[in-house]
Amino acid sequence: MRNLLPILTVVAVIVAVWYLAAMRMNAAWVYDQAARDGIEVSLSQVIPATLTQERPVLPAPHQVVKGLADGLFGQKITSKRSLVYHGWVTLSATLLGFVFGSAAGMALAVGIVYNRAMDMSVMPWAIASQTIPILAIAPMIIVVLNSLGVTGVVPKAIISAYLSFFPVVVGMVKGLRSPDAMQLDLLRTWSASGAQTFTRLRLPSSMPYLFASLKVGVAASLVGTIVGELPTGAVAGLGSRLLSGSYYGQTVQIWAALFAAAMLAAALVGIIGMAERATLRRMGLAR
Amino acid sequence: MKDTLTPPAAVPVIEAKGLNLVFQTADGPVQALREVNLTINRGDFVSFIGPSGCGKTTFLRCIAALEHATSGSLTVNGMTPDEARRKRAYGYVFQAAGLYPWRTIAGNIRLPLEIMGFSREEQARRVDEVLNLVDLAGFGKKYPWQLSGGMQQRASIARALAFDADILLMDEPFGALDEIVRDRLNEELLKLWARTGKTIGFVTHSIPEAVYLSTKIVVMSPRPGRITDVIDSPLPKDRPLEIRDSAEFIAVAHRVREGLRAGHGDVL
Amino acid sequence: MSGGITGRALAAGFGFVFAATLVADRWIVQAGGETAGWIKLANLVALWVCASCINAALAGSGRAAARYLVPAIFGISILLLWERAVAMFGISPVILPAPSAIWAQIITSLPTLGADFVQTFVKGALSGYLIGCGAAVATAILIDRSPFLQKGLLPVGNFVAALPIVGVAPIMVMWFGFDWQSKAAVVVVMVFFPVLVNMVAGLKATDQMQRDLMATYSAGYAQALIKLRLPAAMPFLFNGLKIASTLALIGAIVAEFFGSPIVGMGFRITAEIGRLGLPMIWAEIAVAALAGSAFYGAIALIEKRVTFWHPSQRR
What we know:
The structure holds three protein chains of three kinds.
Chain A (H helix, E strand, L loop, with lengths): L3 H34 L5 H8 L10 H13 L9 H32 L1 H14 L8 H10 L5 H24 L4 H9 L4 H35 L9 H10 L3 H33 L4
Chain B lengths: L11 E14 L2 E14 L3 E5 L6 H8 L7 E6 L4 H6 L3 E4 L11 H12 L3 H14 L15 H13 L5 E5 L7 H18 L2 E6 L2 H7 L2 E6 L4 E7 L14 H19 L3
Parallel strand pairs in B: 3-7, 3-8, 5-6, 6-7
Antiparallel strand pairs in B: 1-2, 1-4, 8-9
Helix pairs in contact in B: 3-4, 3-5, 4-5, 7-8
Chain C lengths: L1 H29 L6 H25 L4 H24 L9 H10 L1 H33 L4 H15 L7 H8 L3 H24 L4 H9 L4 H37 L7 H10 L3 H29 L9
Helix pairs in contact in C: 1-2, 2-3, 4-12, 5-8, 5-10, 5-11, 5-12, 6-8, 7-8, 8-10, 10-11, 10-12, 11-12
């Protein structure tokens, strides 16, 4: 409970500053309108006007909440204006890609730890790839795959898989290599086989690292899917909502889509966090 | 004219009267110090010995104004510990050398001098002086990780000596070192003490170390932390290491051990 | 030693198969025929296995040079495979251009690539990076004195750092216009929180004993900050700076997908997608990859000089 108060304070301050910023940034338009209509406006008339515009420069918090609620609950789930529909499109691609990417990443990590040749050939590239802006290729992959007849959720899932792959590889390798020499020597004195060492020492020790990189991976996958929805004027998914909002100047739509994406990201990371806590608690590693 | 036959007058430097310290922990209040009365005179080498939780480190930290008593009085050089700390009355040596790895040895020794505002020339002079004192001359340009544990601890002691504080407070400084290095450092510490005439408060776990080094041994026991015995050492000031096999030494060590056992068995 | 000989024999064997199928393919094509599918496949498989055997042998040899040779051979074999596959299976350049075609594109388009690089990397990513990291370090120091603010700001910061920040790109374009300023703004938002979280962790990294020592010198807050806590925070700060470097370039490029003047890497990519000019896209990606690794490498180099004392650097 003691930790909740500082967080709430900071959030409250952010919301307050947001309102002030909204008032300030939207005021110019209000004054322009008034000048065009030839009427004088007092400050007490300007302020409410800045917070209820249809296309504000900066939507006020309550406008965003309204847009969000409208998109989530105010539409039929199957309609093209429903954030649930778009959220699902994005989520399905993200999850599909994330599951495959992480599984492949874990498998490769095991290979890297146990095979020296694989370690020396792949690891440097895995680490180097994290410095390369892979996200920039996302549109190209979508277009290429589309022209090959692969459309819909699969191209986005491929991007999503790729983006979660490398963080999981790097994190899992670090985790599998984390037991110190003393621990490994102890197992050797008991003539433990490779598989036994793996399941009883390396795998449990890698859990904290694995979960940390899964969180990074799922966030990266979500961003990848959203970016993958941008090209070819994609008509579904949160990324497409962001894009169309930006083309048509629908600022509330942009912010609502952004917040929906944020909530999705928070939920995904949160779910992995819960899985992490449950697993670590069962293993006695809970802090 | 000074009468060389009478011992110099005992000048109290640290005086504790009825000192109490209660910590509020998650498991309830813990009395770390109970009714501690002690006088330390100038030039004394006082060891504090006792099992964990007996309050010896806590008492040292009170003198250093790193902890504050809940009741009772404690004066250092006639002032409150906080004032004494602000006047830089003492040097503190911790269990770990705690040298900054990004500074050379000389740079580390310069650290308190920089903070206290000594001039550049003064800093250089003092660094050379104390490096010689602890026998680390020539190692000024090395980095801490290039030195052994014993040498790092010597550098830490040099750092505490650099700014002319009259009092030296040492919290188990040799605890992490092996016996041979420890013996050597004990000898060096005694020589240092003889040369500089400082007042030293020394916390230790080791009975031989306490008896070997000190003029006064304070035996403490835990739950609650209190003084069980204060022994004025009959051993001469000039002590080669062999003195540890003498009958006198063993008698004092025996008395210390009795004091520790008594405190252990006490249920208050 | 037998393992080494088997490895070398396998490598030689598969190398021979590769050469043989290559020659056969060239022959048949020159004669006007169509090479059988199995020859093409054998060619590629032989190449892959040959390279793997070489690498396995090198990895087992324990030679110091192997550390660089093995990943290099791996990378080169991937490039060769790519090139051979495109040539042999006649893959259209609209789907996947060959590395040689990409190289040719790079050479002919250097001025364009250069202008894009300056727009996206120098003006967008770099300026946003410097502003964002500077602001994060300053904020970390400002909230250092207030555990209350830290307890509130850090969870919020961790939350924000996990969000799809690139989504603010359209908003930034609306506020700052189409040009590089909006891209820099996106980068600022992206790098701010990771660096802040790392810097706060770094400022906390001194242990109690060190802080007690400073207390015994009666050092003031500023003195303790400058002499102890800032140097001790450097390893953490650089960890954040390295993460931020990759985020900066991604942010700048992706932000351009949402609207940009007619120059910039992200712009070029979206434009060339419409014209199916894939070699140009790959050329841009190659430049971006180079820029990204060089940027990261530069920061790692500075880290090595500043945190020379840290155990991780003293290998």
